[in-house]
Design the sequence.
């Protein structure tokens, strides 16, 4: 069956490629693998794992995902350059099912100012790129970058040429988020009537959200014949982001009566996957975000609450459980056992092995001593932020914060003292003053560990509601031009900040194995409390 005839929409996830290109969203290899396994569990059809030729780190990530993740097609982006295509092919070699995705800009603006190429050269390079990719891989996708601002007749020529060259999927991106639904649907209609052979390929859509229309434009393209949607978790991506996967999937599901199309996504994994990506990237999901925002299923007004009590369908078009949001939010307490904890963790969508459950349960018990009521958000925060899911977190050292003392108040100088233990057994005590307790704690940590960082961003949010809610801190720092993010959670927000800072210090230490604890701490600013 050709792409245009099928009644199923292929979900092509590009969180790890276009999503990762968003400022501040870069991920470590370990984080990419965690996202890739969540995407596999979500049952997306294609995972764009990266742009193998972009850097050795990108190559390694594509190769690792190709090695470890089976089920979805694993794809790498490549420009229409032989080296890019060969790197993509090499990185994808271990994959059970692979795809090379070549792209070239087609619009007049890009031809003139970026590529300095005439129309004929664009067609020649696109064809050569597809042909070379086909030598390495049967599954080749071609994207006409900035397609929505390309002259339709020329776009049709490019599309016809790449189909003849062997592309199986042809992607029509709205690279700048410039188009509007009616215009975009008309462009798909135009291509379908003007390109010979178009019925043999899968037509794909890839939208950016600069005018807030990425989802609407993608759905308009689907209505006009696209059967692959390229999208990202939480809509992360370049500038204003990409089409949001959870929104487009739930629109197709909820309005199946309108679209009449199927999607293979396991929607109950949408919420856990959204939380995972937001925790890893530090890009918080706005409360009012459609589908996965905290308020998406909250009913405040009396009239709505009354209607909901009478029948949920009065004010809910989707069932929160279908997205993986659990109904009962108040969960376990200090006396809850491991069995109940494990069950709750599973209901929240996490697949932890025995060792991870034990570790998470130990953290849960520690927190339960400090907190009256434990909510789902607390359990999520424990799993996401305390090193349970990965070896690549502050939890695995080399530094551990044994004690933190803070002294601060209005009109008083803020001071912090820390006792740190290094994996080699050394204990270091340090202290510092600062412009507030958080800065004092950060400086004390820097002095104790000998790692000095440039703080770029500090974000605090509450993991749950209530007076004793945990604070979740994400810090972004720069170290020799490289960005690192760290997370920390605690019912004490200064401690949450210190743990987040320690998380990044540990990441930096692990990247510099030669790093040793400071021999003798600097004396000038030390404050003995
Ligand atoms: O936005 C875009 O045009 C892209 C292509 C490389 C598919 O991301
Ligand atoms: Zn894009």
Sequence:
């Amino acid at each position: 069956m050709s792409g245009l005839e099928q009644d199923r929409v292929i979900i092509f996830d590009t969180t790890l490629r276009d999503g990762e290109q968003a400022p501040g969203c870069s991920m470590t290899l370990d984080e990419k693998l965690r996202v890739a396994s969540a995407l596999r569990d979500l049952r997306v059809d294609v995972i764009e794992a990266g742009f193998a030729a972009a850097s050795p780190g990108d190559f390694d990530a594509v190769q690792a995902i190709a090695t470890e993740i089976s089920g979805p097609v694993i794809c790498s982006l490549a420009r229409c350059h032989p080296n890019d295509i060969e790197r993509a092919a090499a990185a994808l070699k271990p994959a059970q099912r692979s795809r090379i995705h070549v792209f070239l800009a087609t619009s007049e603006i890009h031809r003139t100012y970026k590529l300095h190429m005439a129309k004929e050269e664009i067609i020649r390079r696109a064809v050569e790129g597809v042909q070379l990719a086909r030598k390495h891989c049967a599954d080749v996708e071609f994207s006409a970058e900035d397609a929505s601002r390309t002259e339709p007749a020329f776009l049709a020529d490019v599309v016809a040429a790449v189909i003849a060259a062997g592309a199986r999927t042809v992607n029509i991106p709205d690279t700048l988020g410039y188009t509007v639904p009616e215009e975009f649907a008309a462009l798909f209609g135009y291509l379908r009537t003007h390109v010979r052979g178009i019925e043999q390929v899968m037509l794909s859509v890839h939208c950016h959200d600069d005018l807030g229309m990425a989802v609407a434009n993608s759905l308009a393209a689907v209505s006009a014949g696209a059967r692959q949607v390229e999208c990202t978790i939480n809509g992360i991506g370049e500038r204003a982001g990409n089409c949001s996967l959870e929104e487009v999937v739930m629109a197709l599901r909820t309005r199946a009566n309108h679209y009449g199309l199927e999607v293979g996504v396991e929607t109950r994994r949408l919420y856990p996957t959204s939380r995972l990506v937001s925790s890893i990237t530090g890009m918080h999901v706005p409360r009012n975000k459609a589908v996965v925002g905290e308020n998406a299923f909250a009913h405040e007004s009396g009239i709505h609450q009354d209607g909901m009590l009478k029948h949920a369908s009065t004010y809910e078009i989707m069932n929160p459980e279908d997205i993986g949001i659990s109904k009962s939010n108040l969960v376990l307490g200090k006396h809850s056992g491991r069995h109940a904890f494990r069950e709750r963790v599973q209901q929240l969508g996490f697949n932890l092995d025995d060792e991870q459950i034990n570790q998470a349960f130990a953290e849960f018990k520690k927190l339960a001593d400090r907190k009256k009521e434990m909510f789902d958000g607390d359990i999520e925060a424990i799993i996401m932020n305390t090193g349970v899911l990965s070896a690549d977190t502050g939890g695995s050292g080399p530094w551990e914060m044994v004690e933190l003392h803070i002294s601060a108040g209005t009109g008083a100088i803020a001071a912090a003292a820390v006792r740190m233990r290094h994996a080699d057994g050394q204990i270091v005590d340090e202290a510092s003053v600062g412009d507030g307790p958080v800065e004092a704690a950060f400086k004390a940590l820097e002095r104790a560990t000998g790692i000095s960082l440039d703080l770029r961003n500090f974000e605090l949010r509450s993991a749950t509601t209530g007076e004793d809610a945990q604070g979740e801190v994400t810090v972004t720092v720069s170290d020799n031009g490289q960005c690192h993010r760290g997370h920390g959670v605690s019912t004490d927000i200064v401690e949450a900040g210190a743990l987040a800072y320690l998380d990044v210090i540990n990441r930096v230490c692990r990247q510099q194995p030669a790093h040793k604890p400071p021999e003798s701490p600097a004396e000038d600013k030390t404050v003995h409390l």
Notes: The radius of gyration is 25 Å. The chain is about 40% helix and 20% strand. The chain has four domains: 10-281, 298-325, 326-395, 399-511. The longest strand covers residues 399-409.
